[in-house]
Structure formats: C-alpha cells, structure tokens
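Minutes, project check-in
Item: structure for the 416-residue chain
Input as provided by the requester:
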Amino acid sequence: MSSNLHPSQLHQHLQMYAYAKWSSWGSLLLAVSLLSLGASLPRQSKPWVLAASVGTLEVGRRHRQTAKMLRESLGDIDRASRINFQALARTQTQTTAQLALTVGAVDANWQPENLITDPVEYIQKKQKHVALVGGTGDGKSTFTQYLSSKIGGRVVVYDSDAKPDDWAWLDQADVIGRKGNFKAIDTAMGKDLEILEDLVQLRGEGGDNAIAGRERFIVAEEFPILVDECDHAATWIKRHAKRGRRYKQFVCALAQNDTAENFGLQGDKDTLYSCFCLVRLGQFGRDHARTKLKDPQLEQWLKAGGKRRFMVDDCPCELDLSNWGVTAIAQPENSGGGDEEARSQSSVMNEYEQFIVNWGQQHPGEVLKARILLQASRLFEGMQPDEVRIIFASMADRGLGEVEGNGDRLGWRWSK
C-alpha cells in the first residue's frame, strides 16, 4: 500500500507506473502499425515486419505486467498522487518559508545606524531642493505641508487639485492653480523665472545682503502633470535646480516616480541627484532599500513602520505625522499674523480652535460665523452651528479673540 512507502519511493513508483502504463499502450499501437505496414510490403519483407511486430507486442506485455505490479504496490492511485503532491509541495516551499521567516524576523529594538528623526534639519543642512516621491495614500501632501510649515521663508504652492481647506494657514493668494487652473500656474512660473533673474542682478550688485528677506519655498504638487500642462515647468525646475539654491529660492516637487523624466529633467539624472534631496515614501522607500542599498533588514524595518518610516536620500527616517494637521502648523514668521500670546497658547489649543485662530489672523477685523466655518473646512463636518458657537464662547473666555452678538447671531473675531 502507498502508506507503507517513503515519499521518495512513492514519487519513484508513480513515475515507473506511469511510464509502464503508457509504454504498454504505445507498444500495442506500434505493433498494429507494423502489421498494417507489412500487408503492403513485398513478400520477402513480411517475415521481418512480423518479427518486429511480435517483439513489440512482447515488450508491451512485459510493461503491462510491470504496471499491474506497481498498481498493486501503490494501492489507491488517486490517494498516492495526493500524498506525492503534498510531499513535493513541502520540499518546494520549505526553503522559501525558511527564508521568509529569517528575513521577516526583524528585531523590534533594531534601529538603522544612520537613522534621522528630523528631515527638515537634514534638508536645510544639505541646502538642496526636495524631490518627494510616493504613491497614492503614502502621505505626500501631509509631509509637504509639514515641511513647508517648518522650512522657513515665504511659502508658495502650485496645486491644481487643492481642496478648499488645504493650505488654510497660508495666504490664499499664495496657493495658485485651484480648480485645475494651469494657466495661473504657468503664469506664476514665468514670474518666478523673472524673479530669479532679478535676484541674480541684485546679488551681483549688493551681495547677499541685497537679497535678504526674499527667501521662498515653492511647492509644486504632481509635477509630471505640470510639465504636461505648463510651458514654463521644465525650464522652471531646471533653472531653480541649478541656480535657485544660491538665491534662497528652494523648490519641492512631487511625483509618483523617482525618474528624472517625471521631474522634467529628461536625460539629466545627475541634476536630480546632485541638487535634490530625494524623499521616498511607502513602497518607493522599501524598493530603494532592497534594490539600491541591498539591505533586506532595512526594507523590513521600513515596512513594519508604515507611513511613519521612509527614506531621505540613503538615510532612513522615522517621523510620525498621523496626528499632525492644523494643530501642528505654526504661523510663519513672515506671514504678518499673530502675536506672542497666540503662539504661547497654541500648544493648549485643540485642532478646531487652532483652525479658527488661523482664520482670524488671515481675516483681521472680520466676524466669523458658524455657517461660514462649517463651509470653510471639512474639519467641522458633522458639527451643529450651536456647537461651533460654544467653541467661539469658550475661546473668548480664554482670551482667544472675542465674540459679537448673541444666540444664533453670535460670531467670533480675532483680537490681540
């Protein structure tokens, strides 16, 4: 019976059985073919054909006997085949399973030697532009907003897909291209090139002091689309890549691939790597660890950390932005809004209060009503107007702005 056979014997017996079975049928067919052929041959050739046919039949008979003996040894052929397949599957997957166990068993306490926890400090130290690469859902927009709120200088954003509450902490005149307005982005990029040339002249005449206070950080969302839609995009990124750093005009370009072509730098891969810090999120970071750095342990470490772990150039980075949002955005120093008291209290404000304060600083003297706030941001989605007015009153009691009116006419206004 098959249960008494070792898996290696079982596989061998099945092979022998299959060979003997099909060989016996093949011998029978060959003997019949020879007899048919002999009928049409000359008389002197017929004995030889008959002898060959008889010999073939004898070979087939012996193979049939062998197949019968093997079948008795194997017992249930279907069961034997299943056992053989299971044994083969174990031998084929054992190495892979062991490898997965070895590679996947990352020590929870293991940390990369060159780990960085402050990508902003790293980027500022390198004095380079930023090329941000990530797929849908990897957190490109969140990281970009975090970076732009920390990097310094006037922030300008080119974002054709910006939602009403995106970049709410910026002067909305500096968020260009909403609702797919690529013409506005192209026009602004043309002005950027003129500004860059003006800065070259100013610095040449008066040195670094002549361009002080003109620092800018320009964010270009989904740059491959801008290259397709805006005539100035390719020239814009090349000029800023090579000259912008010297004149404090830094750019952050976003794409879903880390090729030079995606950043409008066809055939100029050296510029991409020499002038930009490449921030790779999600699978792009893991692929870089595996294919470029040849470090499977680092790949598994990145995978275990989800969105909070990524690569900045060849350095692994860990930064948890899961709770980052409106509450974490500090008002830029050059935006002209806010005072020391508001900044000192920002650490105790919740996300709703922080958004309201930012709105008030951007709209000095204007009264914010509950209905306006509910339309301004999805952050307040699901709230009732009365709940918003309670927030207004609570903030006024703590010295964060003041209320005006009462009942369902109550509104809030920023005041120092």
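Outcome recorded: The two ends are 93 Å apart (CA to CA).
No further action items on this chain.
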